[in-house]
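Supplementary Methods S3. Complex input for the zinc ion-bound model.
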Amino acid sequence: MPCPCCGREMKAGILSGDGRSPVTWKQGEKKAGLMDAIVGSGTVTAARRTLTTFTIESWYCPDCKKMIFDTEVTR
Ligand SMILES: [Zn+2]
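Predicted complex, serialized as C-alpha cells:
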C-alpha cells in the first residue's frame, strides 16, 4: 500500500499489546513476541499502555511516521 502522505510503499505488520509491555509493531504477519518486548524494538511511542491483549493488522510508513489500519466503529 502506498503511503497517502509521501507515496512510498508502506510496511505491513502487526500492532500488538499485552497489557504489561509497551505497545509494539512488528513487520510481517506475526505479532511481536516476548524477546521483541524485552529488547524494546518496535515500541509504538504514540500508544499508551492498555489493560487488555490485542493485535491489529496495520501499515507503517517509517518516513512519515504514520500508521494505517482498516476498521469499523460499532456499538
Ligand atoms: Zn510516508
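Residues 34-39 form the longest helix (6 residues). The mean pLDDT is 88.
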